[in-house]
User: Fold these one by one.
Assistant:
Number 1:
Amino acid sequence: MSDFAIEAREARALIKRILLEEWDPIGVFEFPEAQDEYDTYVSEVYRLLSQRAGVCEMFDYLWWLETTHMGLSGDRQKTEKIAERLAGLISEGITPGTEPSASA
């Protein structure tokens, strides 16, 4: 497996963990049978990160998922925090094709 493929797999695993453990708008983290609940969103988050999306774009996607797609009232502050966390992965060089920034 290429370095790129390994990095991509690791990045996707981290995104999945953040969505499940930190964002988790429907509260399924504690249920073992629901550990794949947000898997369908990982690819879009990864794509946004690969395109160097900012916090606003990441927030817009997560907020849309939470309020429109899932029909929840949403937790704006928590979603902003998670958007910042995810967008911060770019400066950490977590996604393939990105390098850590000098300030990271």
Number 2:
Amino acid sequence: MIVRKACIAMCFCLTLSSSLLAQTSQKRDNNKSCGEFVKIFYTWYVAIALKDNPVPASDFALKERPYAFSPELLRQLKENLRFKRGRARTS
């Protein structure tokens, strides 16, 4: 009976530890993926921002890569853009 309990406890510990290792690996992969996304986005964005464009790079990013922003952030950025355009007309 004691041996059986010890075996069950050991199996539980091994299962738990392998699950934790998988989560750590997933977190690392997720961090790496996020980092790669940010690097690619900013490489693209800086190239646009440094060009002499009639449209601000931020406006261009909202139009060309809306998927790069969360829905809430995209909504707020567009709202800010409408506000800026409204203020520019009244100035």
Number 3:
Amino acid sequence: MSNLLMLKIDQKRIYERNEFNDYQHKYRSRAVLRLAKLYKKITLVLRKFFEMFKEDGQEVKVQWLKYLKKIDGIVEEALILNVRRCLELLHRTVHRDVRGPPAAILK
């Protein structure tokens, strides 16, 4: 999840404003669909695991909830890392060379 960026920029290209917005919207829509598919796979696997011991006692259910919170934290961290990587990509695109002025990506 953290490697599936929500932003894609060709650093050698200068975009028209509407062209850039449209391209990012299409790319982000595809990325969101892929993230949704990954999330669905995760939930299906977790449900299959839960089926194995859903009839067990209360202590097992308490441990299961702790495990779910841990998985939820991992997914959250992956999404935060995804946003951080998108921001880093945007920063590198704009500030290619620190010694010179920022690079233009829009006309």
